[in-house]
């Protein structure tokens, strides 16, 4: 993904006079979609907030008024509970010392007033963009309402650039002045090695819960990798497509035909596709203890919540042989200690492997950090984006990046 025709926020910050940022209202699209503890609602990993700070500081120090915007989770229409960006504002304030002001909406009079009143050292963080259904519809009217709040647009939300949503796609195309933030640039640069002539064997390890989103990418990855290891909830759909009885496990019924197509294409092309041979099962996601089981004999009334020891070993062997490894999606419900072993062991093996290793995704990156500081250090790159890095590797154009190019002005 080349940055040709895309300005950098550094160029804008360095420009003097009318071309610079001083006194301007700068909208920075960040990805503050951080993992939250299901029970307490507390932020369990603040990496996405920390990673956005260099751009925020740069723009603040250039004398601009900073307006931050993000989505958080996937709120159902009319439901906002537990998905306010307020905790992210609190954490940002603790980390930077800036005073963070949160209007009660992302469009309309409330943010306009907060932005008008901003003084030195103060930042405006708009409320969750997805509280408006128009955001995910890439609605131009909604984008125009956001455009009214600012003079300059900066995209630093790498984790969301694969979404053609209003704040990522329609909005920048309405803005004359738009640029890529430092995190977005850093991510695209670091991930180049996975795209431009990656060293073979190339292994991708996939898991996680966003199966219907990501299974389409799996098909495209068959053109790119030599081995695919599939764990997490993603594996359940593949195992069920092989005719196995996964009992109460999460399965995407409508994706069973696609899973079969992927498996037969992999066979035809000689791509190794490794699925779990064993699992850790329990009767509910609230269980505090799991039992080992073969994927051919998942006990009635239980669900697969982690990969088992034999699967860890098989995935581990593929990872250790690889020259390039990309991982997105935890191997299980790692937030619960009883189902974290598969994810933490894969993290440990990948960290110690000799190939070029990259892990991406809000939850996967959090898992690697929770596995330990030394383990996290062993990765060549920890990306803030899961779906975004997958689509980049697949070779897709990313709507959020394309919308920053100078040829894409829609006035
Ligand atoms: N077998 C499983 N059953 C239920 N949830 C799972 C399972 N495997 C993984 N998960 C969940 O997947 C979530 C992360 O998925 P996803 O968002 O796709 O990953 P990432 O953020 O790394 O891109 C985690 O919250 C994890 O608990
Ligand atoms: O968390 C994200 O992606 P990820 O879980 O693939 O890392 C991004 O914030 C995108 O969120 P979305 O998949 O709800 O559009
Ligand atoms: Mg996630």
TrEMBL record:
<feature type="binding site">
    <location>
        <position position="335"/>
    </location>
    <ligand>
        <name>ATP</name>
    </ligand>
</feature>
<keyword id="KW-0324">Glycolysis</keyword>
<comment type="similarity">
    <text>Belongs to the phosphoglycerate kinase family.</text>
</comment>
<feature type="binding site">
    <location>
        <position position="163"/>
    </location>
    <ligand>
        <name>substrate</name>
    </ligand>
</feature>
<protein>
    <recommendedName>
        <fullName>Phosphoglycerate kinase</fullName>
        <ecNumber>2.7.2.3</ecNumber>
    </recommendedName>
</protein>
<feature type="binding site">
    <location>
        <begin position="71"/>
        <end position="74"/>
    </location>
    <ligand>
        <name>substrate</name>
    </ligand>
</feature>
<feature type="binding site">
    <location>
        <position position="214"/>
    </location>
    <ligand>
        <name>ATP</name>
    </ligand>
</feature>
<feature type="binding site">
    <location>
        <begin position="361"/>
        <end position="364"/>
    </location>
    <ligand>
        <name>ATP</name>
    </ligand>
</feature>
<comment type="subunit">
    <text>Monomer.</text>
</comment>
<feature type="binding site">
    <location>
        <position position="48"/>
    </location>
    <ligand>
        <name>substrate</name>
    </ligand>
</feature>
<feature type="binding site">
    <location>
        <begin position="31"/>
        <end position="33"/>
    </location>
    <ligand>
        <name>substrate</name>
    </ligand>
</feature>
<feature type="binding site">
    <location>
        <position position="48"/>
    </location>
    <ligand>
        <name>(2R)-3-phosphoglycerate</name>
    </ligand>
</feature>
<feature type="binding site">
    <location>
        <position position="163"/>
    </location>
    <ligand>
        <name>(2R)-3-phosphoglycerate</name>
    </ligand>
</feature>
<keyword id="KW-0418">Kinase</keyword>
<dbReference type="GO" id="GO:0005524">
    <property type="term" value="F:ATP binding"/>
</dbReference>
<dbReference type="InterPro" id="IPR001576">
    <property type="entry name" value="Phosphoglycerate_kinase"/>
</dbReference>
<dbReference type="InterPro" id="IPR036043">
    <property type="entry name" value="Phosphoglycerate_kinase_sf"/>
</dbReference>
<dbReference type="GO" id="GO:0006094">
    <property type="term" value="P:gluconeogenesis"/>
</dbReference>
<feature type="binding site">
    <location>
        <position position="130"/>
    </location>
    <ligand>
        <name>(2R)-3-phosphoglycerate</name>
    </ligand>
</feature>
<keyword id="KW-0547">Nucleotide-binding</keyword>
<keyword id="KW-0808">Transferase</keyword>
<dbReference type="InterPro" id="IPR015911">
    <property type="entry name" value="Phosphoglycerate_kinase_CS"/>
</dbReference>
<comment type="pathway">
    <text>Carbohydrate degradation; glycolysis; pyruvate from D-glyceraldehyde 3-phosphate: step 2/5.</text>
</comment>
<dbReference type="GO" id="GO:0005829">
    <property type="term" value="C:cytosol"/>
</dbReference>
<keyword id="KW-0963">Cytoplasm</keyword>
<dbReference type="InterPro" id="IPR015824">
    <property type="entry name" value="Phosphoglycerate_kinase_N"/>
</dbReference>
<dbReference type="GO" id="GO:0006096">
    <property type="term" value="P:glycolytic process"/>
</dbReference>
<keyword id="KW-0067">ATP-binding</keyword>
<feature type="binding site">
    <location>
        <position position="130"/>
    </location>
    <ligand>
        <name>substrate</name>
    </ligand>
</feature>
<dbReference type="Pfam" id="PF00162">
    <property type="entry name" value="PGK"/>
</dbReference>
<dbReference type="GO" id="GO:0004618">
    <property type="term" value="F:phosphoglycerate kinase activity"/>
</dbReference>
<dbReference type="GO" id="GO:0043531">
    <property type="term" value="F:ADP binding"/>
</dbReference>
